Amino acid sequence: MLRRALKLRPLLSLHPSSSFSHLFSSSSSSPPPGISSGNFIQLVAGKSDENLSISNPTISIDRSGLCNPPEHCHGPTSDSELVKHLNSIIKFRGGPISVAEYMEEVLTNPKAGYYINRDVFGTEGDFVTSPEVSQMFGEMVGVWAMCLWEQMGRPIKVNLVELGPGRGTLMVDLLRGASKFKNFTESLHIHLVDCSPTLKELQHRNLKCVDEEYISSSGEKKTISQLAGTPVSWHAAFEQVPSGVPTIIIAHEFYDALPVHQFQRASRGWCEKMVDVKKDSAFRFVLSPAPTPANVFLAKRCKWTMKEEVDKLNQIEICPQAMELTESISKRISSDGGGALIIDYGRNGVVSDSLQAIRKHKFVPILDEPGTADLSAYVDFEAIRHSAEEASEDVSVYGPITQSQFLGSLGINFRVETLVQNCETDEQAELLQAGYWRLVGEGEAPFWEGPEEKVPIGMGTRYLAMAIVNKNQGIPIPFSEAKPGQT
Question: From the record, what ranges are coiled-coil (predicted)?
Answer without folding.
Answer: none
